[in-house]
């Protein structure tokens, strides 16, 4: 799970955006409601499109096209001029817009801690899901033992 408190501003913003991407639409709406939803003008209204997903065999092989995935993107500007951006898998326009607003809010020093606190529940849920997945994976682990004969 991303650690919002670490590193440079770019790394911390990246971590907040990752939390927004992991959040459900209801979690983002709740986070915004807790912060008092600010007025936001659409720079780019939420729109749905396709992007090509690529993969690599073994993580380091040559890239190949895996297929197209549906993505929703949004860009907003707050009244004070801060801009926020969001991309999400799927077709949920409201979710993308809410994530963009949270991104814009996070960029202000006064709102940063509030946004991070509002996304704390998302971070805990995602960490719990990752731990549960790790336990399920560990339960299927097979340890192989190789014995060598004493003969040459």
Question: How would you summarize the topology of this molecule?
Answer:
Layout (H helix, E strand, L loop, with lengths): L8 H14 L2 H11 L4 E17 L6 E16 L4 E7 L3 H14 L2 H10 L1 H20 L13
Antiparallel strand pairs: 1-2, 2-3
Helix pairs in contact: 1-3, 2-3
The largest sheet has its strands arranged as 1-2-3
The average pLDDT score comes to 89
Q: What's the count of strands? A: 3
Q: Name the helix and strand elements from N-terminus to C-terminus, one letter apiece.
A: HHEEEHHH
Radius of gyration: 20 Å
Helical coverage, percent range: 40-55%
Oligomer: single chain
Folded structure, characterized:
This protein is of the alpha+beta class and 152 residues long. The protein has one domain (9-132). Helix content is 45%, strand content 26%. It is built from five helices and three strands. The chain has helices at residues 9-22, 25-35, 93-106, 109-118, 120-139, and strands at residues 40-56, 63-78, 83-89. Strands 1-2-3 form a three-stranded antiparallel beta sheet. It is elongated. The termini are far apart. The mean pLDDT is 89.
Can I get a quick summary?
This protein has 152 residues and is an alpha+beta fold.
List keywords for this structure.
elongated, 152 residues, 5 helices, single chain, alpha+beta, 3 strands, three-stranded antiparallel β-sheet
